[in-house]
Amino acid sequence: MTEPLAPPPKKNPQRRTRLPTLPPAMRSRAGLGLALAAGQGRFALQCCAECGAVQYPPRDACHQCLATDLQWRDQPTGGQLLAETRIHASPDPYFRERLPWRAGTVQLDAGPVVLAHVHGDVAREARVRMALRLDRAGQGVLMALPERETPHMEDDPMLREMGTHPRHRRVLITDARAPEAEPLARALLDAGAAHVFLGLAEGWRPFPACERIEAIEGVTLHPLDVTDAESLADLAGSIGGKVDILINNARHIRPGGVIGAALHDTRDALEVGALGLMRLAHAFGPAMRARGADGVNSACAWVNVLPAQALAHDPGFAGAVAAGAAMRALSLSLRAELRAGGIRVLHAHAGPIDDEWHQPLPPPKLAPAALARAIVQGLEQGLEEIHAGDVARDLAQRFAENPALLAREMEGGA
Amino acid sequence: MARAGYDGAVLVAPFTEPYSRFSNESAHWWIARALRGSLRAAGLGPREIDGFSVASFTLFPDTPVALTQHLGLSPRWLDSVPMGGASGVVALRRAARAVQAGDADIVACVAGDTNPIDGFRKLLSAFSRFALDASYPYGYGGPNASFALLMDRYMQEYGASRADFGHVAVAQRANALKNPHALMKKPLTLDDYLNARPIAEPIALFDCVMPCAGGEAFLVMREDRARALGLPFARIRATIERHNAFADDPIQLRGGWVVDVDELWQMAGMGPQDMDLVQTYDDYPVISVMQFEDLGFCAKGEGADFLRARDLTIAGDLPHNTSGGQLSSGQAGAAGGFIGLVEAIRQVTQTAGPTQVADAARALVSGFGMINFDRGVCSAACVLEGGA
Amino acid sequence: MVLDTLTKALASGSVRVVDLTHTLDPDFPVIVLPAEFGQCARFRMDEVSAYDHRGPAWKWHNISMSEHTGTHFDAPIHWVTGRDVPNGATDAIDPVAFVGPVCVIDCSAGAAADEDFTLEPTHIEEWEARHGPIPAGAWVLMRTDWSHRQGAEYLNLRKDGAHSPGPSPAAVRALLDRGIIGFGSECVGTDAGQAAHFDPPYPAHAMLHGAGKYGLQCLRNLDALPPTGAVLICPPLKIRGGTGSPLRVLALVEASA
After folding, report:
1. Residues in chain B within 8 Å Cβ distance of A85
2. Which of A91, A313, C145, C251 is the most buried (most CB within 10 A)?
3. Is residue A124 part of a domain?
């Protein structure tokens, strides 16, 4: 049985914060496919396009027929634990700090026999449910979970270590004015978050949800404007060491194409989305990266909310989506930079939200509460790529299939 | 077509460069020391060898090619044997064929590796692609964790106990106490073995080898040359080699020997019962037990019972790993694939000194190497007989 | 001789310099227009170097803002009614307009009582009855003590828009009749918060700029000025074709006044 995770005690100010170390991160090119699937919450393995043989470990040629066309396909998640060990000695600094570590050999229903991390609630020689998870190094690893949910199973130290679960963690949401801010704060608290800091730009401008947000216990509003480096420095100076999860939902959406739209709208979109992300990274990135191994409420995740169309373009929102694309590129670099601290960077691709800026668009539109739910679920499952809503999922699938075709199709709008 | 025998090619001048727990010398240094020791034993100089076979993990960025220049050798036959624990038997096989065919007259087979502080971790870190992708990220237990899983399954499957494996380890320590160069110098009791701290359950401290630096070497030449030089020699009665056997076994409970064992004994013209001593590849006791089964000493799953009833020490009824093996002498990288073979040559040529088994004439040597992912991929074995 | 007297008076303190300017602060409110319109950029400052690897011996910033951010000057071409005013941009205005006599009409009591307080002709007439006629070429500043408000209270935005004091159309007409050179306010604009609903809408902007007059907004410290007798100094940046500019607004005040 997994012990429910207790809230962390207050930090002992005399103790040095433990430096983040990472599990082995080196992978072959084929091996990186595990991380891609894990980041999307899929359980996929390589399959031979010719003979169908499932491959593991990842290969460059089929071990049955030598064909070189190997494709990542979703697989049944069942498995049988054949053998296990509890590792008590490791020359690797990361695992040394976390011993003993349970690992086992699993016969997958999909075919291959694999070495996997084994959840504490899995019994000897039991049937297991396999998942691909991202580890602290951001690499995809196989995890053998109990076949059925067990109480508090997400509090298993190994799962906690790999994941980004909000429980007992403190979260900064950068834009309180965005429509998903309020449901997001509530969903995070429901998931066990210890506190939600909500950033509020232009406090001198009222907004409808303000009073409701102020009334939520565990939520505080703080002056924060991602276009103003000083406000970020001020807030980071005050709570920078307590932000365990940062959700950057600041964005500036205005309709318009390239020829017809106002330059200042696009500039604002870039200021908020792209440069705002950089300013946030300057202010909050170093402390988060240094706190990647800081106990139960270590810093663990940075979420950037992006327009789903940022995978391609959108003539109806050209500037806003271009800013989203710039943000995505910056975010991918940030992902690489925060990796050193074991901080995961998540992309929450949001389809058009049901708000004033998408008012004339036909459905389906993304309800702010649905975006909030998707973000919290993504954190709970330790994902890297979240596609919130039907439009976002559809775009992601089309992007994966044929990016050039998607760009062509998008000429008519999302 | 039946394979031709290895007649005419013999093994001489076994030499072990005493191991060291840590070393700041290079693999080149250890290989040079081992080669020089073997040549001296044979009364030869470096220019008199025309074949050179090298096994080493720590030569990087060099290869055996660079080593010829480094050591001033000009062989007409050069081999690199990257097979870890199987490298000794594999080197022997290839060298013997070269000598039989006249491609080389004298082949020096050398294995050597260094072990600087933190060297083992670094060696592991780039060991194989499958290990990088699919085993290190899972606790980084190294071979200990891989063999723990194998041992766990073996115990479940065949009902063996830790004490059974302890029997192997304790006997080897007794042998090692007679080997002045063994790194382990304290006696080991079964209680010590059973109460040792866990490393990767069910593997505990005395199931594990100690990584170290060292070198091993021997020469392969025609029998007439050995006689002319007045060197005691060992004949190769049979030898086998197999890679990636039984890939569909979910967990490795048998090695590639099973595929070829009948041919081994047939070619040797003898059987397990004819062996005066056995040198298995002992990175873990469970692997030694597996080799006794797979090489025909007993049925699969009966290895523990078989060994429990035997005395595995030098003076016992089945002397095993007489120099203490890797478990008690240390694992010197690729030289760990030579340790049993070089000791076996000493034994059957009656030159083993303090570890000599009385009247030893025939020996089985087995090799097992390279945990590429979840199992050892290479297996090899040979039967030696002392020349007269 | 006049200037010599002035500098001596400044040195002796018999003439004081009063700063009527707010600090350019990234969080200082700017006017908020309906969301579909282009918005006024807030003041922003990015550090270029600070005695560090980006510039070892110096510190400097890149700054950005609207022409109408913070304490700022409105030129006639700011409004559509003033688009054709000759020399109506900040670079073309005769600088003599930037220094002149200033009349301060104290509406603080009215604004305290009513956030939608409007300056009416009667207030002007009452003021003139006590302080004499507003001279032609004078700057007229409407004191409301609105600059004491901070944050949300300053713009005082509600669902039906901003609520802050300003002049009525008739008052603007009355000031124009007196030949003033410009009008200034402590609020974010020269017009009242609800001036969109006046006839004409935004009378201060529409009528003053149409007549080639200037505006000053986001002023402070008007309570430190005498009703008359002070001199206003308010040169905007010389921006080519500029419709306005943030600026430092100063007043010279005689100590005896």
Report:
1. 141, 145, 148-149, 152, 200-203
2. C251
3. yes
Selected residue of B117, B122, B132, B138 to mutate for chain A interface (largest A Cβ count, 10 A): B138
Best residue in A85, A86, A95, A106 for a mutation probing chain B (most B CBs within 10 Å): A85
Dig out the tokens for B305 from the structure.
């019972």
The highest-level CATH class for domain C2-26+70-254 is alpha beta
Domain C-terminal end among A130, A162, A194: A162
Alpha carbon distance C186, C29 (integer Å): 12
Minimal C-alpha gap between C33 and chain A (Å): 11
Cβ neighbours of B199 in A, within 8 Å: 87-89
The pairing of strands A245-248 and A170-173 is parallel
Distances (CA, A) of A156 to A6, A191, A291, B94, C127: 12, 16, 20, 52, 78
Q: Structurally, how many domains does chain A consist of?
A: 2
Cross-chain CB nearest to A203 (options C26, C35, C152):
C152
pTM: 0.92
Minimum CA–CA partner of A204 in chain C: C152
What residues of chain A lie within 8 A of the CB of B125, using their CB? 24, 26
Contact B212, B183 (CB under 8 A): yes
Chains that touch B (3 or more CB pairs under 8 A): A
Q: Is residue A20 part of a domain?
A: no
Within this chain, do residues A295 and A174 fall inside the same structural domain, yes or no? Answer: yes
Tens of pLDDT, residues C139-189: 999 999 999 999 999 999 999 999 999 999 999 999 999 999 999 999 999
The sign one gets for the Cα dihedral B318, B322, B328, B332 is negative
- As annotated, the active-site residues of C are 78
- At which of A162, A187, A219 does a domain end? A162
8 A C-beta contact, residue B93 and residue B383? no
Q: Which two tokens stand for residue A280?
A: 């946030």
Same domain, A141 and A290: no
Whether A90 sits inside 8 A of B133 (CB atoms) is no
Q: Which residues of C touch A355 (CB under 8 A)?
A: none
Share in percent of chain B as helix, strand, coil (round to 5): 40, 20, 40
Q: How far A188 CA lies from chain B's nearest CA (Å)?
A: 30
Range of the domain at A267: 170-412
The ipTM (two decimal places) reads 0.92
Based on the number of CB atoms within 10 Å of its own CB, is C226 exposed (0-12), middle (13-18) or buried (19 or more)?
middle
Tell me: do A153 and A240 sit in the same domain: no
Among A57, A86, A90, beta carbon nearest to B140: A90
- Convert the pLDDT of each residue in C73-89 to its tens digit: 999 999 999 999 999 99
With 90 as the cut, is the pLDDT of residue C257 above it?
Answer: no
Minimal Cα–Cα distance from C48 to chain A, Å?
12
In a domain, A24, yes or no: no
Which residues are A80's β-sheet partners?
A: A107, A127
- Asked if A85 and B141 come within 8 Å (Cβ–Cβ), the reply is yes
Report the residue of chain B nearest A25, measured CA to CA.
B137
What's the CA gap between B344 and B88, in Å, rounded?
11
From B85's Cα to the closest Cα of chain A, the distance in A is 21
Give yes or no for a contact between B146 and B375, defined as CB atoms under 8 angstroms apart.
yes
Decide: helix, strand or coil at residue A286.
helix
Tell me whether C158 touches chain A (CB under 8 Å). Answer: yes
Please give the domain boundaries of chain B with CATH numbers for all domains. Answer: 9-118+213-229 (3.40.47.10), 128-210+233-386 (3.40.47.10)
- Express each pLDDT in A11-22 by its tens digit: 888 989 999 999
Are chains C and B in touch, 3+ Cβ pairs below 8 Å?
A: no
Both A182 and A108 in one domain: the answer is no
C160 neighbourhood in chain A, CB within 8 Å:
none
A143 and A186 co-located in one domain: no
